[in-house]
Amino acid sequence: MTTQIFRSASRAARSFISKHNNPRLFSSEGRAVAAAAAVSSKGVLPALASFGRDNSGNTSSSWIAGAFALPAAAYMLQDQEAHAAGMERTFIAIKPDGVQRGLISEIIARFERKGFKLVAIKLITPTKSFAQQHYHDLKERPFFDGLCDFLSSGPVLAMVWEGEGVIKYGRKLIGATDPQKSEPGTIRGDLAVVVGRNIIHGSDGPETAKDEINLWFKPEEVTSYTSNQEKWVYGNN
Ligand code: IDP
Ligand code: MG
C-alpha cells in the first residue's frame, strides 16, 4: 500500500512537472514548487492531496494516515525531483564533417553516458542564410563566409540535450574550439585535428542556448519526458 502511494505520488508529480514544463520550474524554486504542489490539499494535484482521506474529507483509517503519507510523498519528490532546480537545455549540433565521418553514435554516446537526456533531434541541411543566422556573432571574422558555406554543405545533426549544468559541461565534453588545443578525452581532442573541421557545435551560454534552440527547433519538436534513469543520475544523500 505504501509503495502504491509513493508510486502514485511520484507519477502525479512527474506528470505535473512535465505538463508545466516551463523555465520557472527549472529555477532555484523548482524543488519547492514541486513539493508544495504535491502536498497542497487545495492545490493542482487533488488526486494526490486526497490520499489518506475519504469522500467526506476526513482521514480514512483504510489509508496510511495523511500525517505519514504526505510527508513521505514529499520526501520522494525531493529525492526524485530535486534535480529540477538546476535543469538546463543546450543546443548541440554535429556538423557535416562529423556526420560524414560516421561519428554520430560516438558523440551521442558520450552525452548519454554522462547522464544527460536527449529531448530533440533531427538531421537537416541548413541553407547558407540559416547558417549565417546561426553564426551571426562571427560575421566580422575572416572565416565567416567559409564557415557558413561549410555548415550548409551537408546534413547537420541538430539536437537539444537536457541536464543539470549541461550548457557548461557540454562545452567541456566538446573541448576547445581548436582541436590542437582540446584535451584528450574531449570530443574534439579525440576525434578532430583542425579548427575548420572540429565536427561539433555547442551553445556557449544560457542566452545562446535559448536562441539556438529557438532557431533550430519549433517548440513542439522539443519533448519533455521523465527518463527512468533520472533517480539514479540525480539525488542528494
Ligand atoms: P566554438 O565552436 O568552440 O564555439 P567559435 O569561436 O564560436 O567556437 O567559432 C565557431 C566555429 O567557427 C568553430 O567551431 C570553428 O568551426 C570555426 N572557427 C573558429 N575559429 C576559426 C578559425 O580561426 N579559422 C577557421 N574556422 C574557425
Ligand atoms: Mg561558439
**Total number of helical segments?**
12
Q: Percent of residues in helical segments?
A: 40-55%
Report the major sheet: 4 strands, antiparallel
The small molecules bound here are: inosine-5'-diphosphate, magnesium ion
Structural class: alpha+beta
Low-confidence stretches: 1-69, 72-76
SSE layout:
Layout: H1 2-19, H2 30-39, H3 46-49, H4 66-81, E1 87-94, H5 96-100, H6 104-114, E2 117-124, H7 128-134, H8 144-151, E3 156-164, H9 166-174, H10 187-191, E4 200-202, H11 206-216, H12 230-233
Helix pairs in contact: 1-2, 1-4, 2-4, 7-8
The site of inosine-5'-diphosphate (IDP) has 9 residues, from loops.
Features:
binds magnesium ion, single chain, four-stranded antiparallel sheet, disordered N terminus, 237 residues, binds inosine-5'-diphosphate, 46% helix, alpha+beta
Q: What can be said about this structure in brief?
A:
By secondary structure, the chain is an alpha+beta fold. The protein has helices spanning 2-19, 30-39, 46-49, 66-81, 96-100, 104-114, 128-134, 144-151, 166-174, 187-191, 206-216, 230-233; strands at 87-94, 117-124, 156-164, 200-202. The chain is built from 12 helices and 4 strands, in the order ααααβααβααβααβαα.
Describe the structure.
With 237 residues, this protein is α+β, with helices and mostly antiparallel strands. The chain has 12 helices and 4 strands; from the N terminus they run ααααβααβααβααβαα. It has helices at 2-19, 30-39, 46-49, 66-81, 96-100, 104-114, 128-134, 144-151, 166-174, 187-191, 206-216, 230-233; strands at 87-94, 117-124, 156-164, 200-202. The chain has a 4-stranded antiparallel beta sheet. Helix 1 packs across helix 4, helix 2 packs antiparallel against helix 4 (66-81) and helix 7 packs across helix 8. The longest helix is centred in the N-terminal third of the chain and has 18 residues, at 2-19. The protein is globular and about 50 Å long. The two termini are 25 Å apart. Inosine-5'-diphosphate (IDP) binds at residues 138, 143, 147, 177, 195-196, 198, 201, 204.
